[in-house]
Amino acid sequence: MQNAERRTLAALVAALLLLTCSWVKAEVLAPDRLDVMYHSYDGGGATIDGPSVLVRKNIGNSFAVSANYYVDMVSSASIDVLATASEYTEERTEYSVGAEYLNDRTTIRAGYTSSEENDYSAQTGSINISQSFFGDLTTLTLGASYGEDVVGQNGNDTFEEDVARRRYQLNLTQILTKSLIAAINVESAVDEGFLNNPYRQVRYLDTTAAQGFSYQKELYPETRNSDAAALRAIYYLPYRASLRADYRWYQDSWGIDASNWALRYTHPVGERWLFELKYRSYEQTQADFYADLFPYRDAQNFLARDKELSEYTSDTIGLGVTWNVPQKWLWVFDKSTVNLYWDHFQFDYQNFRNVLTEQASVGEEPMYNFDANVIRLYFSFWY
Amino acid sequence: MMRWGRVGLLVALTVFVGACTPWVKPYERAHLADEIMSFDRDPIANGYLHHVYEAREAARGADGASGGGCGCN
């Protein structure tokens, strides 16, 4: 091929690239926004509620900052607490700040979160980068976070243990048709350090005890690796409503396999109302070192009786409504909404027995189950 | 032969570049821009629900939210 032909070929390729991609517009930042939320979890003897405030502000066309203040006020008389201790109250406060930089079709985000309670503190830093391709039909995001926790124990000032948490994420969002968008999320997590709860105990058969069993402290491995992958899609129905489907698969080095799927239907009514209906199903197997009742003290190297590490299923139904406030009522904002969402959880444990049941022989107690209600009441303002 | 190879390369490159052309045009994305098509319409509410899931379930990650130390063990 002659030089002239090479130049022609290069010019042709360059022209094709320009013709196919030149119309692409740069991305824009999300609008300025303030959210104020009251959240509540009530179930299984535990009540956790509190406020959360999230504010986001753009600075120019390519930079944004955000901050979140979040509080959990806990009052717990859960089955774990009642079996081996007494009801307690505590408070957890979390502060987060974030920054976002947008350049053409690339967005870089960085965040820092600090969480404090009287016996646990956690600091986490995160960064991710997003790039949209192919006429903004595809968005790829790579992310990583690193956290350091300090675990304490009330009543034991000498107890202090550390945990290091690492997470790596890959998200791919793809517009498939005029009415269908899908996303694939993959995430690996590595935790190292003191991963059990300093208060929680396991039970073992003890014929010398009046109730037939005794308790000893739980003991977990100091490493936990997990992988999760999720596929989700939202479809715009022939009328103005959408149907969302989610599926997630999960596996970790403690022997737990889990999966969940969910369907969500969102239906606007007129200009002001938006209704949502959701169903979610979750199931998991138990950790390799979990047992409801160990045969004797120190029966294994690792011991767990945390019901969240047992085999169980959980079903959730959710209802929600959003009301778009007429702007003449709150004219200082571009848009304002009032939102109320209620989720009802039902947990059914397959290998975690209710030890509070009287008149049942050891190891023959009924399986534990409970339900929980989660409320999210929040006000959103765009400005 | 070399010439045909280069022509083949040009055709392949053209097809690849052609694939860059979005099959859903910008003016066809009205439905996709509707708020009901968002994976994360209200971050404050979604973040809280993910926190509840992580506190009550062994599984974690791949939920579209960035991870953090929530101290919920």
Secondary structure layout:
The complex is a heterodimer of chains A (about 375) and B (about 70).
Chain A: H1 3-21, E1 33-43, E2 46-59, E3 63-76, H2 79-84, E4 88-103, E5 106-117, E6 120-133, E7 138-152, E8 160-177, E9 180-193, E10 201-205, E11 213-217, E12 223-236, E13 242-252, E14 257-269, E15 273-284, E16 312-325, E17 335-353, E18 367-382
Antiparallel strand pairs in A: 1-2, 1-18, 2-3, 3-4, 4-5, 5-6, 6-7, 7-8, 8-9, 9-12, 10-11, 12-13, 13-14, 14-15, 15-16, 16-17, 17-18
Chain B: H1 2-19, H2 30-33, H3 43-56
Question: TL;DR of this structure?
Answer:
The complex is a heterodimer of chains A (383) and B (73). With 383 residues, chain A is mainly beta.
What does this structure look like?
The complex is a heterodimer of chains A (383) and B (73). Chain A is mainly beta and 383 residues long. Chain A has a single domain (31-194, 216-285, 309-382), classed as Porin. In chain A, 7% of the residues lie in helices and 62% in strands. Chain A is built from 2 helices and 18 strands. In chain A, the strands form 2 sheets. Chain A has a 16-stranded antiparallel β-barrel with strand order 1-2-3-4-5-6-7-8-9-12-13-14-15-16-17-18. Chain A has a two-stranded antiparallel ribbon with strand order 10-11. In chain A, strand 10 (201-205) and strand 11 form a beta hairpin. The longest helix of chain A is centred in the first third of the chain and has 19 residues, at 3-21. The radius of gyration of chain A is 26 Å and the shape is globular. In chain A, 28% of the residues are buried. The model of chain A is unreliable at 15-24 (pLDDT under 50). With 73 residues, chain B is an all-alpha fold. Chain B has one domain. Chain B is 49% helix and 0% strand. Chain B is built from 3 helices and no strands. Chain B has helices at 2-19, 30-33, 43-56. Mean pLDDT of chain B is 77; it is low at 66-73. At the A-B interface, helix 1, strand 1, strand 4, strand 5 and strand 6 of A face helix 1 and helix 3 of B.
